[in-house]
Design goal:
Helix content is 37%, strand content 12%. With 617 residues, it is of the alpha/beta class. The strands form three sheets. Strands 3-4-2-5-9-1-10 form a seven-stranded parallel sheet, with helices on both faces. α8 runs antiparallel to α9 and α12 crosses α13.
Length: 617
């Protein structure tokens, strides 16, 4: 790597905000001999352009001997972010490769078949006459032979040890704040009837029945691996497989690797990984094998894949803690902070808390949040809004209550299957609709009038029923627990303000968020601390369903008043003027929030045990 090439590799014709200074600091950090540089860049600072500049400094074949690594990888956990890279003309030399299932076969009669189920995957020795034009193998060949290969973090990890995607000089990981958690997720082994094709062929023991549950789980994993190997070999002896058989074969091979990794890591006395096992239903029930801090897994799938690494995120909150979680020595890692250049007045935080949204207290708090949401909607009659619901249970209850209040026509939502389609539909509308979302705190760009306000319904603490979370809390890792929640809140706050001249308000509905801010102040980036320091109570209008966009006398919300429809068509200039007025009003602290409103009995609340799980979608 030649750090001096970083500034000249910047792909945009001009710099925005603090980009020029950031590139200089990143160059100096690598020039000082650091192999890993953490780049803490706030939302909207152009991290993808910074990433391209860093990748451009990778060694070329003219710089080093043939045996040495050259070129660069760009990777991100977020599929949507990879889509953005593919569509950005400034990043057109990042050659994107996706997994086989994302490509369709081009053979006659197979044009509805994904490449991972095509004849080349089903028939032994199949000689494809159009392989040179196959969309997957074409993209793979291009990406493997060009300077910068771009892929998801999942694909990057899965290709560890690949002869096609070998070690490169520079690896850039965007949105890297969750790297440890992503590694834990990838290394987790889920054993249940859906994931284990031979489930009915083996006896599932109660791993906690006697002795050490982990040791008993390892013995079962070895037995299961043998059954998986036999089933896989039986399929491999067939000259041709059906698409279903090909899928079964691939899953068996994948499961064999997962089990082998777990057993080998557990048996390795030098492995730092701690394993935990869940089997809530006992004998015959599903088993989940989870790693804690899988540093060894990351060494194999990430750190052995490059010479120099740049990890970019707005929310790497604590350098030492982050390094411990991903298996790096903080002494060999540099941290570069990028200045936030968006005016803090354009990204206000407002306190509309109505109590705690914990599972035990939600019955009392959620009706108040629903009514407060009506007042916020009335405050933004012609502006689109986003509600971070935290879980599908909260989303469902909010949607039900808003519909009862006549606002169903202004409210949109999604389920687990149609989240992307519903999100795109909401973004495309010119109406001032409100979108009730679940787990959309990251990788969502709502610039300009796409969204002018949002509500954070619940402090996004991790689920304490998760064995990994419980184990860490037993060990006293409360700072880690709070940082994980703070990181998600900061990510959420960045969805609606995407440029220096953009503006958008964030309303906080859960009083636990205020406690979180108090306990994590020392971990906050300075630019977010500035937002928290200016936290105020907004001057909201009185509760008025019609002003919020509801139809008079309607419980279904199927229509809207003429005045509301007219409001939605106001120009963005008038929206900006009103936003400025609100900002001035809030600064004068003339708040008039009615904290006594109630919405009656909450007799239809979901009691599903997973309703309080973080990201249960």
């Amino acid at each position: 790597m030649d750090p001096d090439r970083i500034p000249s590799s910047f792909p945009a014709p001009s710099y925005r905000g603090a980009q020029e200074e950031a590139l200089s600091d990143i160059r100096d950090a690598f020039a000082a001999g650091n192999d890993v540089v953490l780049v803490r860049a706030p939302t909207g600072s152009g991290k993808s352009l910074l990433a391209r500049a860093i990748a451009g400094a990778a060694a070329t074949t003219d710089d080093v001997s043939p045996a040495e690594a050259t070129d660069a990888y760009y990777t991100t956990p977020q599929v949507s972010q990879l889509d953005d890279v593919a569509e950005d003309p400034l990043l057109d030399d990042l050659n994107v490769i996706r997994g086989k299932s994302n490509y369709t076969c081009i053979l006659n009669g197979e044009t509805d078949t994904p490449v991972d189920r095509a004849p080349c995957a089903r028939q032994a020795g199949f000689d494809c006459s159009v392989r040179h034009r196959c969309p997957y193998f074409s993209d793979r060949a291009i990406a493997s032979n060009r300077r910068i290969a771009a892929m998801t973090l999942a694909y990057f990890m899965q290709t560890a040890g690949s002869e096609v995607f070998r070690k490169r000089d520079v690896v850039v990981i965007d949105e890297a704040h969750g790297l440890a958690e992503w590694a834990e997720m990838y290394a987790t082994v889920d054993l249940n009837p859906r994931t284990v094709p031979v489930w009915d062929d083996v006896g599932i023991p109660d791993v906690a029945a006697d002795g050490d549950p982990l040791e008993r789980t390892v013995r079962f994993a070895e037995t299961l691996a043998g059954a998986v190997e036999r089933a896989k070999d039986e399929l491999l002896r067939k000259p041709e497989l059906t698409p279903e058989e090909a899928a079964r074969r691939d899953r068996l091979q994948e499961l064999r690797s997962e089990l082998q990794w777990f057993v080998e890591d557990y048996r390795n006395p030098e492995s730092p990984t701690t394993w935990v096992v869940d089997q809530p239903d006992g004998e015959g029930g599903a088993i989940t094998i989870k790693p804690l801090d899988p540093a060894r897994y990351l060494h194999h799938t990430v750190w052995d894949r490059g010479n120099k690494f740049a990890l970019l995120s707005a929310t790497i909150l604590n350098k030492e803690a982050f390094c411990r979680g991903v298996g790096l020595d903080p002494a060999n890692v540099a941290l570069v902070d990028v200045e936030h250049t968006f005016p803090v007045d354009n990204r206000p935080l407002y306190d509309v808390t109505r109590g705690k949204m914990t599972y035990d207290e939600r019955d009392e708090t959620l009706p108040k949040v629903a009514r407060t949401l009506v007042r916020i909607m009335a405050h933004h009659p012609d502006e689109k809004g986003l509600v971070h619901c935290h879980s599908y249970a909260i989303q469902s209850e909010l949607r039900r209550r808003l519909a009862q209040l006549g606002l169903g026509g202004r409210v949109r939502a999604h389920d687990r299957e149609n989240r992307d389609a519903e999100l795109d539909s909401w973004k495309a509308t010119d109406d001032s609709d409100v979108f009730l979302s679940v787990k959309m705190e990251e990788a969502l760009d709502l610039t300009g009038d796409l969204c002018r306000w949002q509500v954070v319904c619940k402090a996004p603490y991790l689920n304490t029923n998760d064995s990994r979370v419980a184990r860490r809390l037993e060990e006293g890792q409360w700072s880690w627990y709070r940082r994980a929640a703070l990181r998600t809140v900061i990510q959420a706050c960045g969805r609606v303000v995407r440029a220096p001249d953009d503006y958008g308000a964030t309303y906080l509905a859960d009083s636990s968020l205020l406690d979180l801010f108090e306990r994590t102040r020392s971990d906050m980036p300075g630019w977010f601390r500035d937002q928290v320091d200016r936290l105020s109570e907004p001057d909201l209008p009185e509760f008025d369903q019609v002003a919020a966009g509801g139809a008079p006398g309607s419980a279904s919300g199927s229509g809207r008043s003429k005045s509301s429809a007219t409001n939605r068509r106001r120009t963005s200039n008038r929206s900006r003027e009103r936003s400025k007025t609100r900002s001035e009003s809030s600064q004068s602290n003339e708040s008039s929030i009615d904290r006594s409103v109630s919405d009656g009995d909450d007799d239809d609340r979901s009691s599903h045990p997973l309703s309080d799980v973080w990201g249960d979608g």
